[in-house]
Amino acid sequence: MSLIASRLVRTIAAILGGWFSCASVAQGASVPQDTWMNWRGPLASGVAPQADPPSEWSETRNVRWKIPPAGKGHSSPIVVGSQVIVVSAIPVGEGRQPVFDQAPGSHDNKGVTHLHQFVVQSLGRKDGREVWRKVLKEEFPHEGGHETGSLASNSPTSDGERIYVFLGTRGLFCLDLAGTILWQRNLGRMDTLHAHGEGSSPVIHGDLLIVVWDHEGDSFLHAFDKHTGEPRWKTPRDEKTSWSTPLVVESSSGTQVVVSATKRIRGYDIRNGRQIWECAGLTDNVVSTPVHRNGLVIAGNSYYQQAMVAVRIQGSSGDVTGTDRVAWKLNRLTPYVSSPLMYDDTVYFIRHNQNVLSRLDPDTGIPRGEPLRLEGIRDFIFSSPVGAANRIYVTARDGTTIVLKHDRANTIVRVNHLDDVFSATAAVLGGEFYLRGERFLYCLARP
To answer: Which of 219, 245, 262, 409 has its CA 20 to 30 A from that of 82?
Structure first.
């Protein structure tokens, strides 16, 4: 294996993020745009349409509060009313000799040494003080995951009345806003590729809660009644491990659940889980979640090869690979862990995990200028870019956030830095910008 390929392999676990994640939640057209109750915001695009957060900050400027969360997690925070919700994994008790994953191809993984508590935590939006904390599960994990990942990478979601947490092997949970568990479901054991961990996030649409269960065993797309947790439908998937979060797309021909994965991008009828269409064209280890605009779904990834595909879903059925349902394809500069940002008539995305930002016309795939090298970033980018107030925010693991104008020039407005390591995607609401690091959760806001 070449040095370049080896390095690509070592970064797969960033996957865990739902960073990627891991994961985005399309909740339907009825969701108010001044919310951020899921990983990719109210439009499932990465945009906060009514927000105006600060464009500059440091450890001593525009920090309303910063607190250490209950434990480690690369899941992103969400905001539900006056509460900020975060999910973490906390080692407890005395440590043991490390137990290393034995999955085929395991590499660069963390040895498991402790029992872990998997915790959802509510913090006051105003001051960051803990409102409540709930232990959802305590167990000794069967996979430690990649050394750059976390055991809590699936981001939570909410409909404003309940909070939903998907922890893969640990189960699926519904809580009220006071932290009481209303129902829970055990979906089995998930064995991920290279034992690099889990990361896809749940999605709400209407009365349904949608969960992707892609791993090295039997894979499925699940739909549950969000009120009771009772199964509505379950569709088998011919896929191996993926970390992408499903995308719900409403159209005149009906509402679809779109899932991006290694073998195919697929669209499913949300009413019954029936597969409507499929399209090949991506490569191994799909982490990035698709975006949508005007009947066009855009999905990309980058592992051994780079790929991006734009599919016209209106009227698509069966295998549309190589047909006129494919609007355009791209084989360079495509994202790996990070998901694209769809902002107005431009789609933005990061090259692999690197500090290069591309801009395309989503309808044609034609570049809007040359790729931009984001000077000032010195580490991988695992989080996904977000947009607000005609600005684009790109945060890297080294604590640097580049802020650019959302226009044709995309000039840099500010280069900000915090003394932490960031893999989770930001949450943006009102005048606030929430960043979860390895050591602190920051609420960035003007005085």
So the answer is: 245
Show the tokens assigned to 443. 């609420």
Q: Is 195 helix (H, G, I), strand (E, B) or coil?
A: helix
Between residues 252 and 161, which one has the greater pLDDT? Answer: 161
Order of strands, sheet of 432-436, starting from the edge strand that comes earlier in the sequence:
63-67, 441-444, 432-436, 427-429
Closest CA to 179 of 316, 70, 278: 70
Q: Which residues contact 443 (CB under 8 A, 6 or more apart)?
A: 63, 64, 65, 66, 84, 125, 128, 432, 433, 434
Domain count, the chain: 1
- Gap between the Cα atoms of 278 and 261, Å rounded: 11
Residues 443, 428: Cα–Cα separation, whole Å: 10
Taking a C-beta distance cutoff of 8 angstroms, is the pair 73, 88 a contact?
yes
pLDDT at 334: 97
Contact yes or no for 209/198 (Cβ under 8 A): no
Q: Find, among 26, 53, 46, the residue nearest to 157 by Cα.
A: 26
In the chain the first and final C-alpha atoms are separated, in Å, by 52
Residue 325 tokens read as: 């349902």
From CA 426, how far away is CA 263, in angstroms rounded? 29
Let me know: does 223 contact 205? Beta carbons within 8 Å: no
CA–CA dist 402, 394 (Å, integer): 5
Percent of all residues in the chain with a pLDDT value above 70, rounded to a whole number: 93
> What is the radius of gyration, based on Cα positions, of the chain?
20
Residues 103-155 pLDDT 10s: 888 887 888 899 999 999 999 999 999 999 999 999 999 998 888 889 999 99
Q: Residue 336 forms beta bridges with which residues?
A: none
Domain interval for residue 382:
3-444
Give the three-class secondary structure for 318: strand
Q: Give the per-residue pLDDT at 30.
A: 60
Q: Quote the pTM value.
A: 0.93
Distance CA 221, CA 166 (A): 13
What is the C-alpha separation between 111 and 114, in angstroms, rounded?
A: 9
